[in-house]
Amino acid sequence: MLMERKKVILVETVTALFILLFxxxxxxxxxxxxxxxxxxxxxxxxxFFPGTVAIAVPVIEFGIVILLIVKRFQYFALYxxxxxxxxxxxYIFIILKFSSYIPCSCGGILxxxxxxxxxxxxxxxxxxGGVAILIYPLNKRPYLQ
Length: 145
Prior knowledge:
Distance between the termini: 20 Å
Radius of gyration: 16 Å
Helix content: over 70%
Shape: elongated
Number of helices: 5
Low-confidence stretches: none
Order of helices and strands: HHHHH
């Protein structure tokens, strides 16, 4: 029983960290939307549709936050959080490895990180998300209810 309680606390902590991260990231993108949109337009991978991505990313981040808050959807939202962080990490890796120009489309505190630091930051969240999914209490998973 104590082990289950520790799992619940860890899952709730990871959930709270994802909520903080996505609220902060989405809000900073919206506050400086013009810069975010312009930088996305400079990205070698996203320059064909920066406006769509500039709108979609904060909407998706806020959407995941809502899903994380609603207990019924939390397990699914952890998968969404994990997947989004994997996509962001792959994007950063591709930009670092294959692009001559590295756009800076992050805002706030994340803007002060180097791309390598940002990649490691993302990887930490990928690992946290993966752990939370793996240890999520079986009796709380939606497909078992």
